[in-house]
Design a protein that fits this description.
By secondary structure, the protein is mainly beta. It is 0% helix and 54% strand. The protein is built from no helices and seven strands. The strands form two sheets. The protein has a four-stranded antiparallel β-sheet, with no helix packed on it. A three-stranded antiparallel β-sheet has the order 1-2-5, with no helix packed on it.
Length: 107
């Protein structure tokens, strides 16, 4: 905790201002900077069935969208990256809310 991410955009892009939800604990994204893949690790407090993983570029456009199952306890997912160098936002959405982290792609 202690890290708050705010994302603001408009016109059909990401349209929210948020603080991390308590649904996921020990949420991390690594390596940062990333090259060919990104690993997302989180501890789900409760069984939530599915989560949506979204990656947004620096102008708020969705550049990756994937659905994954979520189990109670530790969940680790690896995402292959075919992205240009730059800063991105990764967001994991569940029925109870979402959490967002920034990461950099540097090849």
């Amino acid at each position: 905790f202690g890290e708050t991410t705010y994302l603001i955009s408009y016109e059909g892009l990401l349209t929210n201002v948020e603080e991390p939800t308590p649904q996921f604990e020990a949420f991390s994204v690594f390596p940062n900077p990333a090259t060919a893949q990104l690993t997302v690790s989180f501890d789900a407090k409760e069984f939530d069935n599915n989560a949506l993983i979204m990656i947004y570029n620096n102008v708020g456009q969705v550049v990756y969208r994937g659905e994954t199952g979520v189990d109670p306890g530790l969940n680790v997912r690896t995402i292959p990256l075919d992205l240009s160098n730059g800063m991105y936002q990764l967001q994991v959405q569940s029925l109870d809310g979402f959490i967002t982290r920034s990461f950099i792609v540097q090849r």
